């Protein structure tokens, strides 16, 4: 039966399904209720108020994503005989879902070039091998990669280890997702995160939701959007695809919504993929034509407004319509809604950042907010919808190639550590250096670096060129089967709710919360902090100011973080107070921003030409399904798009006809970078004609390594492809 709304009774049934997988619904419920932060998105749930409680204290806040992650961590361990019975070549044949479903990693594993299988090794063997290799390798011949799954404490400690070892090749998964948000916001408001708290979102009368699908990827936001709609507010969705959950969603915890459904989008605009920047400038032009610009705000609280207003006037409607794919009349109708708004929030996800002009997109959103004074007061502001639960915290505690000056100075002055001053490489630059042989060793704290990379053929070659790669994970992923280094070591680590001591995470609303940890479910895995501290002691044992035994305690690390990371002072006492807190200096309820002069900055841009306009071309964007989180695929089906498989390219019926194809005909999808054969070309009338969808990470083979020059974020959206009938 075709799914016509998100959530609903299917979501309730799904709870029982996952409960059975976890060994019982009550067992899953108890796991979800522990005082630990949610393991999936950064919207924020859990902590000292208990699981399934959001930052406003609302309960029961829960979604399929959080249950999927929890049940994955409740899997039994992988039998050590599995590695003898299944070769690397057999692992390569498994899908992302099949690899995830093998079970929990419970033994350290090693692969050496020339072997056909992984071998189980002891922790002692693993530590000795890693320490020997790092000791024999120049620091700048290594890179250190961090996912957003880990805690603030593990992130801080590993970046400290990398730097005292001697390199600034310290980077995180944000470079492949929201780095454009951070750079764009920093250049506009002097802070790289959301300017609002959750309560502001629910008080807004207008919400722009641009380039995202939170119904699938951040489901708990749907409750807040429901409250906006019930209060008479508008939700304006800008997306080339009409997503089922953004049209209608049934909130399982709300009886009225569950039974009757909630209309989420009050208005839906479908630009071409890559047309967002032109559309945003068009909204600014239409808003100015309506006389709705807040000139007093621009004069008093921003810089660059004179140049920006002139650029708005100079822009022609012909250019706007051609490059956005949206008619002037439709843009003007949305501008009228914005002009009537008293409190507006602008939210976006990777449909905005995954472009070669991602930073420009974010700056244009900030421009639009400045234009009507919709940032710097309650109920208004800018909200990048962050992905993994602690991706923002990992960046806050210093996981960037260049440390913030305040952190750099404080580490030297307060703790006496010596830090390198050489420029570090971003994630893609580290991959390029691995491919060229410049970098010889990689170390990955969680995540799937292979699976998250553009141009997966290149990613395989780059990672395979390493002399050693170390990966700390809870479960298997495609990065454990593809792109194996000459020596690859996989270290099994504990999940967040199994840590022996409390850790902290940061939500996208700049809210730091404590996770209590809990008993380990399986023997074998170790805490991330203990592993990093042990390696530090083995690789750089005698450093002034650094006691690795003491730093094996997360509470000690929190004292370091509180002393050196701006806005994080309260973390030093969180063990005693149990008080979760908002980071100082990031929420802007007054129009004084984080820039040097306290004023917001408006930016002017050149609108990029729309790509893929040839008759034999389509504009492709890679997307996640409803049954996955980041690179982790939990289910083959994509429920809300009514797809039962993933080897698809979803295109408009008019495009099927244009290419002379039948529905579900097999094609080769070809880009400038690679090709995928045996793909089903499937009719999908919810997408704007001229555009197409394929699933990430499988389709990464088609994505070029073109990156936004300012943020170094690859352009996973707007890939020009052609279809060749098989």
Strand order, sheet with most strands: 3-2-16-15-14-4-5
What is the number of helices? Answer: 30
Q: Please tally the β strands and state the result.
A: 28
Q: Report mean pLDDT, rounded to a whole number.
A: 96
Model regions low in confidence, pLDDT < 50 over at least 5 residues: none
Shape: globular
Task: Determine the N-to-C terminus distance.
Answer: 30 Å
- Helical residue percent band: 25-40%
- The percentage of residues in β strands lies in 15-25%
Write up this protein.
The chain has 726 residues and is α/β, with parallel strands linked by helices. It is 36% helix and 16% strand. It has 30 helices and 28 strands. A seven-stranded mixed beta sheet has the order 3-2-16-15-14-4-5, with helices on both faces. A six-stranded mixed barrel has the order 21-27-24-26-25-28. The longest helix has 14 residues. The radius of gyration is 24 Å and the shape is globular. The two termini are 30 Å apart. The mean pLDDT is 96. This is Formate dehydrogenase H. Pfam families: Molybdopterin (PF00384), Molydop_binding (PF01568). It comes from Stieleria magnilauensis. Keywords: Iron, Iron-sulfur, Metal-binding. InterPro entries: Asp_de-COase-like_dom_sf (IPR009010), MopB_CT_YdeP (IPR037951), MoPterin_dinucl-bd_dom (IPR006657), Mopterin_OxRdtase (IPR006656), Mopterin_OxRdtse_a_bac (IPR010046), Prok_molybdopt-oxidoreductase (IPR050123).
Task: Give descriptors for this structure.
726 residues; alpha/beta; 7-stranded mixed beta sheet; 6-stranded mixed barrel; 28 strands
């Amino acid at each position: 039966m075709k799914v016509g709304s998100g959530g609903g009774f299917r979501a309730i049934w799904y709870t029982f399904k996952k409960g059975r997988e976890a060994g019982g619904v009550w067992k899953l419920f108890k796991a979800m209720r522990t005082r630990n932060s949610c393991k999936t998105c950064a919207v924020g749930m859990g902590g000292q108020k208990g699981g399934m409680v959001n930052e406003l204290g609302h309960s029961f806040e829960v979604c399929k994503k959080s249950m999927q992650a929890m049940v994955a961590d409740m899997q039994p361990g992988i039998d050590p005989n599995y590695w003898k019975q299944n070769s690397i070549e057999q692992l390569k044949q498994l899908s992302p879902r099949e690899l995830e479903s093998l079970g929990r990693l419970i033994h350290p594993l090693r692969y050496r070039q020339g072997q056909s299988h992984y071998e189980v090794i002891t922790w002692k063997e693993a530590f000795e091998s890693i320490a020997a290799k790092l000791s024999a390798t120049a620091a700048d011949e290594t890179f250190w990669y961090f996912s957003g799954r880990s805690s603030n404490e593990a992130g801080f400690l590993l970046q400290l280890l990398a730097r005292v070892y001697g390199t600034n090749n310290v980077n995180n998964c944000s470079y492949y997702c929201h780095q454009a948000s951070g750079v764009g916001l920093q250049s506009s408001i002097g802070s790289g995160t959301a300017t609002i708290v959750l309560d502001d979102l629910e008080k807004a009368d207008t919400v722009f939701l641009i380039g995202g699908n939170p119904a699938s990827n951040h489901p708990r936001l749907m409750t807040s959007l429901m409250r906006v709609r019930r209060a008479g507010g508008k939700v304006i969705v800008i997306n080339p695809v009409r997503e089922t959950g953004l049209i209608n969603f049934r909130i399982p915890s709300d009886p009225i919504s569950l039974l009757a459904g909630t209309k989420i989008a009050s208005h839906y605009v479908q630009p071409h993929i890559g047309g967002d920047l032109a559309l945003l400038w068009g909204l600014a032009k239409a808003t100015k034509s309506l006389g709705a610009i807040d000139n007093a705000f621009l004069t008093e609280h921003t810089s660059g407004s004179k140049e920006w207003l002139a650029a708005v006037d100079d822009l022609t409607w012909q250019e706007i319509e051609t490059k956005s794919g949206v008619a002037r009349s439709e843009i003007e109708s949305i501008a009228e809604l914005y002009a009537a708004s008293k409190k507006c929030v602008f939210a976006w996800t990777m449909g905005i950042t995954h472009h070669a002009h991602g930073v420009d997109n974010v700056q244009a959103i900030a421009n639009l907010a400045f234009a009507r004074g919709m940032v710097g007061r309650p109920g208004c502001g800018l909200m990048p919808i962050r992905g993994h639960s602690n991706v923002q915290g990992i960046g806050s505690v210093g996981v960037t190639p260049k440390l913030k000056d305040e952190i750099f100075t404080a580490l030297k002055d307060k703790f006496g550590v010596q830090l390198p001053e050489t420029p570090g490489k971003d994630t893609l630059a580290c991959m390029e250096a691995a491919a060229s042989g410049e970098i010889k060793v990689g170390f990955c704290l969680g995540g799937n670096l292979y699976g998250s990379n553009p141009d997966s053929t290149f990613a395989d070659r780059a990672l395979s060129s390493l002399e050693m790669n170390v990966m700390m994970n809870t479960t298997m992923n495609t990065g454990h089967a593809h792109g194996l280094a000459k020596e690859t070591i996989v270290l099994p680590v504990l999940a967040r709710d199994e840590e022996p001591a409390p850790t902290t995470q940061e939500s996208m609303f700049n809210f730091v919360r404590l996770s209590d940890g809990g008993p380990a479910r399986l023997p074998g895995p170790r805490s991330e902090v203990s592993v990093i501290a042990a390696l530090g002691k083995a690789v750089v044992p005698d450093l002034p100011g650094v006691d690795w035994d003491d730093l094996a305690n997360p509470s000690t690390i929190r004292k370091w973080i509180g002393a050196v990371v701006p806005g994080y002072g309260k973390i030093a006492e969180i063990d005693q107070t149990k008080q979760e807190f908002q980071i100082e200096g990031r929420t802007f309820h007054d129009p004084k921003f984080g820039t040097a002069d306290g004023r917001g900055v408006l930016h002017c841009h050149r609108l990029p030409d729309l790509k893929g306009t040839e008759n034999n071309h389509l504009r492709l964007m890679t997307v996640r399904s409803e049954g996955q989180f980041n690179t982790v695929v939990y289910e083959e089906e994509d429920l809300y798009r009514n797809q039962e498989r993933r080897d698809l390219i979803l295109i408009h019926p008019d495009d099927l006809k244009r290419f002379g194809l039948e529905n579900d005909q097999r094609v080769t999808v070809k880009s400038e970078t690679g090709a995928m054969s045996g793909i089903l070309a499937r009719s999908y009338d919810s997408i704007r004609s001229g555009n197409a969808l394929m699933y990430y990470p499988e389709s990464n083979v088609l994505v070029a390594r073109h990156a936004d020059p300012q943020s170094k974020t690859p352009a996973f959206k707007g890939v020009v492809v052609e279809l060749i009938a098989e």
